[in-house]
Amino acid sequence: MDIDAWVWWLIGAVGLGIPLVLTAMPEFGMFAVGAVAAAVTAALGGGVVAQVLVFVGVSVALIAVVQPLANRHRDQRPQHRSGIDALKGRSAVVLERTDGRGGRIKLAGEVWSARTLDADTSFEPGQSVDVVEIDGATAVVM
Fold first, then answer.
1. What is the rounded radius of gyration, in angstroms, for the C-alpha atoms of the chain?
2. 140 within 8 A of 131, measured Cβ to Cβ
């Protein structure tokens, strides 16, 4: 049973597509596209050297072009803060007198225990404060 070279290249492309799906590494997809291009070269009658050169050329070109574009796109995405990181920098309203020893604030619709960043500072109910950090279950405010 004699299988044409282009069939082997397509088998190779499928073989490279499997790790692409399993590992989510886009480089395997670029190699698979290079294998398909080599299969087309083989189907058009190109020799083994031409097939390998097309495979390498297309694969390297895709990696050289696509990866910098993907990296640039990834770096431009806005970073969304979540959890306690999302609370830092937010404003809150003092519910009970808050000083260096403790107090209560309303932050993001919830009542939090709080203390001031500076032990000598205090805030009275109704005043607005800014959350500097979250220390355990206590908001540190100023």
1. 30
2. yes
Is residue 42 a contact partner of residue 9, using CB atoms and an 8 Å limit?
Answer: yes
Would you give per-residue pLDDT tens digits along the chain (142 residues)?
Answer: 568 999 999 999 999 999 988 988 888 999 999 999 999 999 999 999 999 999 999 999 999 998 888 888 877 766 777 888 888 989 999 999 999 999 999 998 999 999 999 989 999 999 999 999 999 899 999 9
Alpha carbons 128 and 125: distance in angstroms, whole number: 9
138 strand-pairing partners: 113, 135
Q: Which residue has the tokens 């107090």?
A: 103
Helices (H) and strands (E) in the chain, counts: 3, 5
Specify the amino acid at residue 44: L
Q: What number of other Cβ atoms are within 10 A of residue 70's Cβ?
A: 11
